[in-house]
Amino acid sequence: MYSTTGLTRDQIVGLCAIIHHSRLPIRRPWPPKLGLFDSVRVAVIYLRRNRAQVELAEEFRVSQSTISRAITAVTPLLAAALSECVPTTDDLDARSTYIVDGTLIPCWSWRAREKELYSGKHRTTGMNLQIACTLSGRLAWVSDPVPGSRHDSYCLRESGILDDYDVTAWMGDKGYIGTGMLTPIRKPKHRDLLDWEKDFNHHHNKKRVIVEHAIANLKTWRILHTDYRRPIDTFATTISAVLGLQFYRQA
């Protein structure tokens, strides 16, 4: 089970218990043919592997529409039930140093929202997430999604984190120049970088790679790595569900 969901059987049972004891919008919204346990498995496998629904239908011996109903019903339940597992800006330690970077969560190019979702940097559409990790590489905080056309520094400011914390000891790439964080030194137009400036950038980038590893680990949830295919109005909820699952398994 772990290879397909990223969770142990006990963790899946724990999720079922959390959902069972939560206040549901309607009584048993998941498909009766699957039941709660298999509906949770279907939703988590979909988020973990981003597999085609027809493949899951064959594996669970139900129709594709049943798989779709399970994903539609359980994903928002996971997002709501695990919301307390996801750290907010208030949970960060003001005495700690964090490494910050942005990443694009890709999606289809929906015509109605293509302009705001399109990232010129990545040359595709998606949502921007800001990621903060500790110096040991532990995922510490993830921002709310912002349309992909926005710059990293804008997204970080929108999160409110720059207003709440002294970030002078935090680290980021050149996209965060002007935010107060430690960033690489940009080459001036009129001269080359000095040797000490090159050394600073080298050591800075060597340390900052830690956050890229944290992002890669988060994106083992393939729904965050490959194009999101479901309706755009479900995208933010799906991201919230994945973040809840990631911090749930990390606890």
Automatic annotation (TrEMBL):
Cofactor section: a divalent metal cation
Tell me the first and last residues of the signal peptide.
Answer: none
Origin, by domain of life? Answer: Bacteria
Q: Which InterPro entries match?
A: HARBI1-like, HARBI1_dom, Transposase_HTH_dom
The DDE Tnp4 domain is annotated at: 100-245
Q: Where is the Transposase Helix-turn-helix domain?
A: 33-83
Keyword annotations of the record = Hydrolase, Metal-binding, Nuclease
Tell me one GO molecular function of this protein: hydrolase activity
Q: What is this protein called?
A: Helix-turn-helix of DDE superfamily endonuclease
Q: Which organism is it from?
A: Actinokineospora globicatena
